[in-house]
Design goal:
By secondary structure, this protein is mostly helical. The chain is built from four helices and no strands.
Length: about 100
Amino acid sequence: MSAVPDNIVQFKVPKKPKVREKEAPPDQRKVCVVPIKAIRDASLTDASIRVLAILCSYTNRAGITWVSQNRLAADMGVTKQAISKQFVKLKAAGYIEVVKRGF
């Protein structure tokens, strides 16, 4: 008499799947709309205008975007803190409005 019952089904662990990494598709954005008022505003720095331009490149036709500051920082090659600092300036100047939990 064996200790293993006869009705047990044998199970084998499957092999690890082969994962292939795909290349990221090229950036499809060609132009963006930036307020001309921001370009002429002497109180904005060049960094603020650059952040506003990259932010505008992610907006839809209604001017709404859900892009993260981390993504903007990665696109510009700066830190998230640098983006956040420019957001404060742009928000104070009235060029952007940050809505939390856009419900």
